[in-house]
Design a protein that fits this description.
Mean pLDDT: 90
Distance between the termini: 44 Å
Largest sheet: 4 strands, antiparallel
Number of strands: 4
Order of helices and strands: HEEHEEH
Oligomer: single chain
Strand order of the largest sheet: 1-2-4-3
Shape: globular
């Protein structure tokens, strides 16, 4: 298995400008996403899970009602990698799509 490439400084600067922050406890990035309600927050997590599985790179996260706190790091490298870059970009895109959706998803039942 190949080790992922390190995240570049340009990639890091782009993510910082998009609201990501360097974690204070280790080499990682963190961000809190806020949604209109629990279903949107959970929908975000479900959509990100699909992308994370495709990348074989999974976030550390915590959800309470409409908030999802995310921490990204690459354990294999002990720091930030291109996988973190790809997943952060995907998370920002998914969050924007969910925020732009006209209504909360309807659930059967």
């Amino acid at each position: 298995m190949m080790m992922p490439d390190a995240m570049t400084q340009d990639q890091l600067k782009t993510l910082i400008a998009a609201g990501w922050a360097r974690a204070t406890t280790r080499e990682a990035l963190e961000k809190e996403f806020k949604f209109k309600g629990f279903r949107r927050a959970f929908g975000f997590m479900a959509a990100v899970a699909v992308k994370a599985d495709a990348l074989n790179h999974h976030p550390e996260w915590f959800n309470v009602y409409n908030r999802v706190q995310v921490l990204l790091t690459t354990h294999d490298t002990g720091g930030l990698s291109g996988l973190d870059w790809q997943l952060a970009q995907a998370m920002d895109s998914i969050a924007a799509e969910i925020a732009a959706a006209p209504g909360a998803p309807k659930l059967a039942g």
